[in-house]
Amino acid sequence: MSTEAQITAWLASQKDAMLAELAEMVNTDGGSYDKPGVDRTGAQVKRFLESHGIATETLPQQKHGDCIRGIVEGGHSLGTGNQRSNIVLMGHRDTVFPKGEPERRPFRIENGIAYGPGVADMKAGIVMNMFVLAAFRKFGGAPGPLVGLFTGDEEIGSPEGRPVIEAEAKNARVVFNSEPGRASGNVVKARKGGVFSVVDIEGKAAHSGGNFEAGISAIGEAAHKIVAIHALTDLKRGITLNVGLIQGGQSVNTTAPNCQFQIDLRYVEPADRDEIMGRIHDIVARAYVPGTKAALTVKGEFLPLNPTPASDRVFKVYQAAAADSGLKVEGEFTGGCADSGFTAALGAPTLCAVGPVGGKAHSPEEYLEVESFVPRAQAMARAILRLEQTGL
């Protein structure tokens, strides 16, 4: 049997083992701010990889889940003039759900559909990467070193994971990010960038009936700023602004001494980021209600994933590999953000959403198509084996 036949046959035999690993991971708490929980899923990844003879290292993180790195040695790159060597399989272990969610909604399978917190986004992709690494460790054949990078804080913008990801990207020949495959079965070739900011406003408290004139309303100021920020939305350019959270005030009969709101900015072109953020800064600096003060803090950020000639070549190889695995795959654009933007920005050809197919992420209805597990793993393995066809 050829190496490709051996690897794909072995992956086909591992469906039950994949689901067992997935069940354990989904049933482990792993919200982004739950470092012990995310580290438990990291321990599971290390245990699996090491049981298959794969060397691992732990990159400790102070506040969020540690990053786990698994290495499978492979052949040397034959790409012309490419000094980058590593083929990177990437994914995040954290979820958006509160502590205790797995107890409330444990992993289950009904009619070929798996459910549970993080089942698609993106614990299935983590498990898939684990098994693909194990397959190449068992049978060889990779045209270069394989690196599995398993991070722990993507859902909040990778505040600690980003430097680790960017360091990996600098030596990456290609990156496959195993976010969930789209409900259509497609992968993602392009994503928006995003900036997540907080605005804090100070006013002055006063009795709203007996001493109204002495008050300065932070909530009134927030209302003016929010209207101005929302007006920056430009759908033709792919720019959207959304104030999704707001809190403030002291009581209904008190002029609000404080207010805070949070902004979600999405954009396509890197230059648009600086333009819009500049205009937001101007809005925040302006006092619509005299006497108020405001400050803007960026809490998290993702870079856009934009296609390049190199990433297009990777997609075509992956598309053919998927076809040989029985899948029809196209490339999609999405307004969602991911760590893939960080690797692409540093010149690593990147393909995203190559994980098993699922949908309704971040909700109680999140699901995974169980029968997509094996063919998506086979597609990735075939694409890796055929990487020389990209010329990278």
TrEMBL record:
GO terms for molecular function: hydrolase activity; metal ion binding. Keywords: Hydrolase, Metal-binding. Residues 190-291 form the Peptidase M20 dimerisation domain. The active site is at 94, 154 (proton acceptor). SUPFAM superfamilies: Bacterial exopeptidase dimerisation domain, Zn-dependent exopeptidases. It comes from the Bacteria. The keyword Metal-binding applies. This is M20 family metallopeptidase. It comes from Neoroseomonas soli.
